[in-house]
């Protein structure tokens, strides 16, 4: 009863108050979660023989997820007072740089 | 001489550009001082590598410079740990070698062709200058007082606790690691304060560099999550914490896994689990934080926090189960011995045998940090008063750093940065309060009292107290003068300690002649040079593991064991060969193709670090593997004394180490008066005799003795009867006797 209410509250709140761009980010994050879960399930089913390959693939999704989440946090209007030094453009540039570093490490680690 | 003249004097430094010029000059001078104070040993002796470990780093750097990076990365070293060899590329932290290799190449590109040895010798002083600047940056993040950063830079530059590991010639991992440690912490504070991904990424990159250079990176991986965890418990979770921590962890963990020696450890061992756990917990908190902002019900929020706490406890339990099930490796012995301080002595004698792994005595703290050890708690207390996110970091670091430094002498090194930062905060607070030329007037005081009455209801107790000035000029002068004197004494103490305690190369031993002139005892290099010039290129040298790196570096000969104690059994084999009778040792040496045996003997000179003094550790390590063949008890007299003179036990007298050390020692003295100066023991009339070894070289002061392992006897006798035959001991009558012989087996 209450759970339904909470969840429906949450979804309506989300639908109403989230800007389009943030929803796009959320879709990307959801996609990353799906990819990560798929990799993990495959790892559990088929064994982790090239462990570095699994790790780099999995940590690429995890890393990208948290970076996107950080971008989402920094670009959300409500958090503006937390980040006086970070404008949305700066946040995006940071995001690009961090993602490049992440992917460099992942490609290097996957061999 | 009044307050006004003082004010005019103070106004000189008020302009913004003057200040920045002054700051740059001061920082440059501090960097210069920290470099200069590390050069005692180079100026007094010569520009050589000290100690034991640096010799391997130096050798690896030479290999890197000579063969290029890719060959260095897959370097299989067949000249150590004979017959096993060492996969060097995968078992070292390459940061130090790559750094000095890069500096060497850069200098060559600028057409300054410097010998790689000089780059290696002077790397630590150069990086100590950078450490001072990093400490300046870190401290500036902590307070608004400008002077604190400069004071911290000064302290960091010349504090003996750090100099002890970074004098010129000490080419060890710590040389660059402390700079990276302080700089990583600075970047972390910066990232946390701004909540910026970019600073988090920089922090991760420098963390990766730190992982590449020193095994002490585990300190960072445990300290940052601990800081985050304390912040969460204090209810200071913020989106900035999420951004900075997750960026650091995601990138930093991947960066650390690029180092072959670290490999999969960040996901498999217990040392790295706090970081992973806090990473997961932060995801949950971020989600709950979002939900909380979306749903304004008060009751529900309490539920959410209980839920978060429950998940935390559950995942902790899961971690414990995974550790006990063996999915996650438990704490390694080296780390575990930091918690259970008696562990190493009982289970891993090789860890306990290193003198740096002993608990720290009180005087060592004063010796290494002088004045700072007194103002350190004051600085921590001041951090408690302000208590922003970054002050929590200093507090957490101070608590953990102090604990570790108390458990192990060596970890004084990781304590030093926080002591410098906290000490600088304390001293600059004092100076800032007493160095105000302006005297508060009556109105000021009344206004302050009014403010006190008004604002006494809200906030912490400490924030209520209004700041009033100090009135009397004399109290100001007295206090500032006292601080200045203390600081001067600090500088003098640091210089004295550096000059007298930490600037002696262990390769050459210096002593004073009666007339005050210096006498240098250079037996080590004499002996290593002999090995280098007078033995086959691939002659295997057996010695105790302490000298493995130096033999590899200076004598350039293959060794059996060295300072990288990765194979305990192999070390125990050498220990067994050293502590057994010749009949037992000889087959062991034959099996390992040993050509020469090297022992260090300080009996003639009174040199304390010789092999007889280390002998009991050899016995203990060997006993750990072969308890029924080597027994420590047998080396003690029935009264429990460890003696080398006439009353030594038979086992002691027959051990290979004893025989090698005291072989022919009698002949130096008039009959019956051979005295071991180190142990103040009168040796027995008849010295030991060796039958399977022959003396090949003994250095000038008898510090290093090298023996050649004899080949098998030509006619197939064992060596003892062959020696006996040569000495003519065989009596004629005995030939008539028929011994009880067994039948020949074909």
From TrEMBL, chain B:
Highest taxon in the source lineage: Eukaryota
Enzyme class: transferase
Residue ranges of every copy of the STT3/PglB/AglB core domain listed in the record: 540-590
UniProt keyword list: Glycosyltransferase, Magnesium, Manganese, Membrane, Metal-binding, Transferase, Transmembrane, Transmembrane helix
Location in the cell: Endomembrane system
A Pfam match: STT3
Cofactor names: Mn(2+); Mg(2+)
Annotated transmembrane regions: 21-43, 91-107, 119-138, 144-163, 175-191, 211-234, 246-267, 273-291, 303-329, 364-384, 391-409, 415-436, 467-492
Enzyme Commission number: 2.4.99.18
Database matches in InterPro entries: Oligo_trans_STT3, STT3-PglB_core, STT3_N
The reaction(s) this protein catalyses: a di-trans,poly-cis-dolichyl diphosphooligosaccharide + L-asparaginyl-[protein] = N(4)-(oligosaccharide-(1->4)-N-acetyl-beta-D-glucosaminyl-(1->4)-N-acetyl-beta-D-glucosaminyl)-L-asparaginyl-[protein] + a di-trans,poly-cis-dolichyl diphosphate + H(+)
Pathway this chain belongs to: Protein modification; protein glycosylation
Membrane topology, record value: Multi-pass membrane protein
Oligosaccharyl transferase STT3 N-terminal domain location: 21-422
Sections of the chain in a coiled coil: none
Family, similarity comment: Belongs to the STT3 family.
Name of the protein: dolichyl-diphosphooligosaccharide--protein glycotransferase
Organism: Podospora comata
């Amino acid at each position: 009863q209450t759970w339904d209410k909470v969840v429906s509250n949450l979804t309506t709140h989300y639908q109403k108050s989230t800007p389009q761009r943030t929803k796009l980010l959320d879709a990307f994050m959801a996609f990353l979660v799906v990819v990560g879960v798929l990799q993990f399930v495959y790892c559990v089913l088929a064994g982790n023989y090239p462990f570095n390959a699994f790790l780099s693939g999995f940590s690429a999704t995890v890393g990208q997820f948290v970076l996107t989440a950080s971008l989402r946090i920094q670009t959300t209007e409500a958090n503006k007072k937390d980040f006086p030094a970070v404008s949305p453009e700066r946040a995006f540039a940071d995001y690009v740089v961090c993602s490049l570093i992440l992917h460099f490490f992942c490609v290097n680690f996957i061999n | 001489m009044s307050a006004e003249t003082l004010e005019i004097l103070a106004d000189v430094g008020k302009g913004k550009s003057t200040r920045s010029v002054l700051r740059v000059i001061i920082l440059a001078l501090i960097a210069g001082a920290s470099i200069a104070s590390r050069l005692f040993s180079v100026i007094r002796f010569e520009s050589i590598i000290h100690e034991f470990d640096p010799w391997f780093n130096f050798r690896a750097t030479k290999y890197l410079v000579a063969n290029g990076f890719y060959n260095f990365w897959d370097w299989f070293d067949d000249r150590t740990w004979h017959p096993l060899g060492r996969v060097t590329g995968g078992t070292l932290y390459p940061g130090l070698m790559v750094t000095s290799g890069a500096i060497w190449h850069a200098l060559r590109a600028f057409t300054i062709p410097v010998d790689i040895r000089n780059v290696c010798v002077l790397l630590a002083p150069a990086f100590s200058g950078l450490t001072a600047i990093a400490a300046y940056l870190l401290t500036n993040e902590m307070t608004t007082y400008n002077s604190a950063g400069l004071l911290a830079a000064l302290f960091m530059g010349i504090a003996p606790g750090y100099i002890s590991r970074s004098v010129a010639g000490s080419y060890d991992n710590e040389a660059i690691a402390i700079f990276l440690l302080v700089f990583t912490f600075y970047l972390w504070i910066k990232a946390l304060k701004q909540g910026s991904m970019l600073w988090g990424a920089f922090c991760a990159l420098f963390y990766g560099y730190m992982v590449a250079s020193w095994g002490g990176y585990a300190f960072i991986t445990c300290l940052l999550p601990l800081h985050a965890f304390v912040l969460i418990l204090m209810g200071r979770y913020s989106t900035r914490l999420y951004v900075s921590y997750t960026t650091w962890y995601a990138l930093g963990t991947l960066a650390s896994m690029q180092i072959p020696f670290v490999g999969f450890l960040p996901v498999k061992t217990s040392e790295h689990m706090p970081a992973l756990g806090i990473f997961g917990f932060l995801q949950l908190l971020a989600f709950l934080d979002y939900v909380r902002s979306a749903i304004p019900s008060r009751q529900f929020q309490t539920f959410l926090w209980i839920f978060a706490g429950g998940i935390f406890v559950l995942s902790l339990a899961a971690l414990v189960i995974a550790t006990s099930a063996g999915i996650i490796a438990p704490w390694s012995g080296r780390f575990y011995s930091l918690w259970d301080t008696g562990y190493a002595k009982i289970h891993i004698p090789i860890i306990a045998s290193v003198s740096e792994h002993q608990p720290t005595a009180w005087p060592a703290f004063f010796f290494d940090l002088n004045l700072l050890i007194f103002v350190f708690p004051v600085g921590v207390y001041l951090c408690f008063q302000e208590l922003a996110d970054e002050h929590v970091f200093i507090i957490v670091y101070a608590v953990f750093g102090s604990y570790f430094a108390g458990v192990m002498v060596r970890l004084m090194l990781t304590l030093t940065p926080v002591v410098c930062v906290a000490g600088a905060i304390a001293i600059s607070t004092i100076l800032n309060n007493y160095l105000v030329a302006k005297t508060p007037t009556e109105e000021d005081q009344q206004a302050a009292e009014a403010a006190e009455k008004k604002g006494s209801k809200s906030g912490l107790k400490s924030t209520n107290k209004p700041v009033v000035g100090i009135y009397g000029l004399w109290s100001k002068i007295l206090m500032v003068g006292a601080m200045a004197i203390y600081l001067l004494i600090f500088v003098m103490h640091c210089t004295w300690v550096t000059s007298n305690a930490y600037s002696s190369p262990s390769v050459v031993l210096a002593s004073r002649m009666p007339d005050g002139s210096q006498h240098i005892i250079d037996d080590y290099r004499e002996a290593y040079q002999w090995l280098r010039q007078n033995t086959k290129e691939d002659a295997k040298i057996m010695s105790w593991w302490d000298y493995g790196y130096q033999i590899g570096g200076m004598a350039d000969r293959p060794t059996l064991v060295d300072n990288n104690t990765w194979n305990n059994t192999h070390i125990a084999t050498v220990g067994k060969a050293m502590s057994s009778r010749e009949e037992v040792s000889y087959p062991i040496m034959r099996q390992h193709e040993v050509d020469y045996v090297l022992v260090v003997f300080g009996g003639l000179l009174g040199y304390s670090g010789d092999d007889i003094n280390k002998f009991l550790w050899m016995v203990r390590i060997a006993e750990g593997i072969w308890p029924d063949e080597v027994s420590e008890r047998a080396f003690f007299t029935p009264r429990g004394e460890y003696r080398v003179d006439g009353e030594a036990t038979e086992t002691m007298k027959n051990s290979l180490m004893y025989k090698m050390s005291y072989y022919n020692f009698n002949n130096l003295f008039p009959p019956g008066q051979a005295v071991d100066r180190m142990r103040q023991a009168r040796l027995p009339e008849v010295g030991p005799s060796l039958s399977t070894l022959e003396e090949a070289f003994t250095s000038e002061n008898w510090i290093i003795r090298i023996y050649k392992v004899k080949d098998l006897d030509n006619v197939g006798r064992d060596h003892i009867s062959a020696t006996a035959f040569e000495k003519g001991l065989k009596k004629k009558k005995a030939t008539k006797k028929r011994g009880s012989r067994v039948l020949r087996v074909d």
